[in-house]
Amino acid sequence: MAVKENLRPGGRSARVQASVHEAVRTLLQSIERTDVTIPLIASEAGVTPSTIYRRWGDLQELLADVAVERLRPDMQPVDTGSAKGDLEAWAEQYAEEMSSGIGREMIRDVLAAQDNSNACKCYAFTREQMELIGDRAQGRGEGFPPVDAVMDRVVAPIIYRILFGDAPSTDHVRGLVADVMRSEAVAAIPPLPVSARKSG
Amino acid sequence: MAVKENLRPGGRSARVQASVHEAVRTLLQSIERTDVTIPLIASEAGVTPSTIYRRWGDLQELLADVAVERLRPDMQPVDTGSAKGDLEAWAEQYAEEMSSGIGREMIRDVLAAQDNSNACKCYAFTREQMELIGDRAQGRGEGFPPVDAVMDRVVAPIIYRILFGDAPSTDHVRGLVADVMRSEAVAAIPPLPVSARKSG
Question: For A78-199, CATH number?
Fold first, then answer.
């Protein structure tokens, strides 16, 4: 799962990225998505169209890049005092955000790009959140399933249902969480030391 | 989950659909996807571009419509003699097909369309296959998990991993199947009569 290197903050390249992203967000709020073009974005951002083509290749890649930045979590999962509570609170909020109009559009933008590195970034963001909840559980001396099991049994069904069917209900999401938290995996796998968990 | 009505076979509308679909498949094999346009498809299919615009709206909807037809299962799940064997054989083949280049492209086409009725059709196709395996299990007097559990715990993680990360390994897919087949749900839920299962 290749993930693009982060840019040096404050460098010229980072400034161009910031202004182009800002231009895309502004345009998406004010005009129809199908009317957004690279020349329009360039003009709004104060760069040349060729700067954008050189860096992003095409409009779809640029939209995916902007979407993934918006999907980057801006906070740690809420600490509710228990692993099950943390996972439930996180999963309910995640399902709600991802099934909103803007959430669906962001997922679609990320998946529409030929290059799947942005989709992998989203996967990595979510995994990190799950690792944080797992580490916190360990700190409290609670059991927690392996992160792969949480991805397969909580995250995957939420996203699959949003993309292919109807958004899962709150009860359904709670059922997924309850299920993975009482699975054999929780009891069978002893909490890992933080260092081992991080490198997994 | 709205699903478009099937067309009356042999009607004029069905003939137009068949020739346009055929034209799309031919063009996708011979030229770059980004070079495929509605005028080109119309010329290949022997219809006017406006026929295509009127019926499908835009290229993305047409590509989604073609993709969903290719994703329609053309056979029943293999009968291996046991529910677990049937589900395992189905899931391995599904993961292999969906993670291939053409499989990924079809999923992407289905999801890129604004109208999600095609995505829902894919969901319905897969659900039907799971119901068939469940009915067969019942005929043998075996337990089988509720179809929703199979969708969440086998189908969803396969598709999620293909879209957002790396394709799941055969071992991973087998683990998903083993897991859902030994879950509490299998033992707790008695086999339903075929009529009740079909309407569920």
Answer: 1.10.357.10
